[in-house]
Amino acid sequence: MATDSIPNRGPEVLAATTITWALAVIATGLRVLSRKLKRNRLWLDDWLAIACHHFTVLNQKLTTFLEVPRGFGKHIYDGPPDAAYAWALGLFIGELAYFSGLVLIKWAILAFYWRIFNILHSIRLRIWTLFAIVSAWGLASILVMSLKCQPVDSNWVHQPNSTSEYHSLCNDRSFFYGNVIPNMITDILLIAFPAPYIAKTQLSMARKLGLATISLFRALVVLISAVLFFYTLRMDLTSPDVTWNYVDTSMWSVVEQNLAVVCACLPSLMPLFVLATNGTLCGRSNFARGSIGLSRARNNTVGSQLRTLPKNWKVGTPYRGWVSDFPSGSPQEGRRRYRRVSVFVADREQFGP
């Protein structure tokens, strides 16, 4: 049979995974650059996003150097003799990397919410609750994936139609349902989570709409999860033609993880958007550019009155100081009537000026 007549979806898999992985690499790099430009140290959410990026690298290497070169994307009878073995080994390692990466990126989003909104005590319990749900889902998925076949090496040693003995502890389709559906639910919760708190921030309406729009970008990840669920429903798990039947689910799993990293990095790129549009990282206010000041003061002028912050002040910690009751530029400016306030500045650069 001529090589050109052999059905091969390998190039399609490589194109989809490589393009989205490149976007994830760029987004992660720009996230770090944004922090450096504003001279802010990397925080927990940044480190979690970077850790997740390592799992996207692992999945891309498995796809590019192990699976596709050994027949993934072709029918099993058109591939090399070790095609099923390469697919099974890549699937086992890739799914562990997939679950670990998704858990880390969801943690990164929750850490971001904590950094921005934790001055509101009502949000802390909700963040911890979501953290527990995501952690339980991730741990359960990893354990089931690791232990569903006994012995463990039968996940990749066992081949279709093989006479070797192994024991499967769960149904594959039930396992797929058990990880795709909770994954979609937690993504929806992460999208809806910040909505009531954005309204409470001391930001202009344009900034609030920008933050809400960025949060809605995660709907793209939910849509991809729905596509993945669709292909899971129609996948033939009984056929030995695994290198062909698993193409869609494997490809969309990698795409989902890559785009999850991109969406998680978007809020941190706002300083670069400001730089691109205004030509400067600085805005109109001299007060902790891009921060959210949630104050216990009687009006919203505290942010404009705190012109500078102490050199030993750390991002993400409450600042308590004396401010004038009269805003800058008012006829009463300069009158010595001060009161003590407590202001929480979440970050200098998250949302621009």
Account of the 3D structure:
The protein is mainly α and 353 residues long. It has helices at residues 10-37, 44-67, 83-117, 121-147, 154-157, 172-192, 195-198, 205-216, 218-234, 242-245, 247-265, 270-278, 302-305; strands spanning 149-150, 167-168, 293-295, 318-324, 338-345. It is globular and about 60 Å long. It starts with 9 loop residues before the first helix and ends in an 8-residue tail after the last strand. Keywords: Membrane, Transmembrane, Transmembrane helix. InterPro entries: Rhodopsin_dom_fungi, SAT4-like. Pfam families: Fung_rhodopsin. It is found in: Membrane.
- Provide the CATH superfamily: Rhodopsin 7-helix transmembrane proteins
Q: How many strand elements?
A: 5
Spatial strand sequence of the major β-sheet: 3-5-4
Largest sheet at a glance? 3 strands, antiparallel
Estimate the mean pLDDT confidence: 76
What is the CA-CA span between the terminal residues?
A: 64 Å
Order of helices and strands: HHHHEHEHHHHHHHEHEE
The percentage helix is 55-70%
> Which class best fits the helix and strand makeup?
mainly alpha
Overall CATH class: Mainly Alpha
The CATH topology: Rhopdopsin 7-helix transmembrane proteins
Shape: globular
Beta-sheet strand percentage?
5-15%
